[in-house]
Amino acid sequence: MAAFDATVVITTKDRRDELRRALESAVAQRGAAVEVLVVDDGSSDGTAAMVAEEFPRVRLVSHGASRGLIGRRNEATALARGAIVVHVDDDAVLSSEDTVRVTVAEFDDPQVGAVAIPYVDVLHGPRVHQRAPAPGVWAVDTFRGTAHALRRDVFLRLGGFREDLESHVEEPEYCLRLLDAGFVVRLGSATPIRHYDSPRRSPARNQHRIWRNNLVRAWSLVPLPWLPGRVAKIVVAGLLAGRREGQLRATVTGLASGLGRAPSELLRHRHPVERRTYRVERRLRYGGPIRLSEIRAELPPPAPATHPEEP
Q1: DSSP 8-state secondary structure symbol assigned to residue 188
Q2: Domains in the chain: how many in total?
Q3: Where in the numbering of this chain does the Glycosyltransferase 2-like domain appear (predicted)?
Q4: Per-residue DSSP letters for 94-130?
Q5: Cβ neighbours of 243 (radius 10 Å)
Q6: 19 close to 98: Cβ distance less than 8 angstroms
Q7: pLDDT digits (tens, 9 = 90+) for 267-300
Q8: Within this chain, do residues 114 and 182 fall inside the same structural domain, yes or no?
Q9: Is the model's pLDDT at 307 over the cut of 60?
C-alpha cells in the first residue's frame, strides 16, 4: 500500500518566488493524506534554501545540475510515496484546499489512468480548460502538463514520459501509450488551478520543440495506414501556426528536425499502437470529450494494477 493518498509534485528551476506561491497552496490541501515533493533541477537563485527554511514539511530533492523538466518529472513520480501523483507547474496555484481530494476521488473507475485537472491561464483570460461538461467519466485524448494527476504504478509500468522530447508533446505521447494499455484520461471537476504562465518561457524554443516532437510522436506511435497523412497534416499545421504566431523560422527548423529524425525513429523507436487504439484516439481528439461508457468496449482491458515498492 502507498504511504499517502497522493503526492503533489512540483519540479522547478530558478523560479523561487513563483514556487513559494505554489507551495503555499500545496501544503494547504485538506481531506486526503498528501505528500508534497519539490524536485529542484539545478536552481542557482536560492530555491532549495527557501524551501528548506520556509516549508520544512515539504520533501525536497535538490540537484546541482539540470536534467530537464521531463526527466525530473519522471524522477519525481518514481520517488513519490502517493498512489496518485498530482503534477502542477511552479508557476501555478491550487485554488482550493479540496483540489487533491476531489482529484483522487476521480480515479474511482479502474480504467482511469490520468485526470486532466481544470485550470485557467490567468494571464490569457478567464476560460476554464479541462473541466468535465457534466457528471460522469468524460474521456479526452490528452492533458496539459501544468495540471494533471497520474496513477503512479501505471505511469512507471509504461516507462513514463519520453525524456528525449525535452519539453512539449510529452503529454499526448504518453497519453496515446496509456490508451493503448487500456486506460483513459478523464476530465476533472475540481476548482480550477490558476496558472500564471511564467514570462521566462521562450516562444521560439517552444515552437521548435512542439513541431519537432509532434513528428517524432507520429514516427514512433501512429499506425502505418494513418502515418503519411498524419505527417503531412503536422507539416501544414505547423507552417500555418508559425506564420500566424510570428514564429515561422522556429517552426520550420522544428519541422526539419522532426523530419530528419524519421530514419532513427522508424528503425529504432517505432512501436505503433493498435489500430483500434488510434481510432479511439482520433475520436477523442476531434470529437471529445466522450463518455467512457461509449468507448470502453473498444479499448483493451487494463492490465491489473501493480504496487511498486516505496522508494
Answers
A1: B
A2: 2
A3: 7-121
A4: --STTHHHHHHHTT-STTEEEEE--EEEGGG-SPEES
A5: 12
A6: no
A7: 998 999 999 999 999 999 999 999 999 999 999 8
A8: yes
A9: no
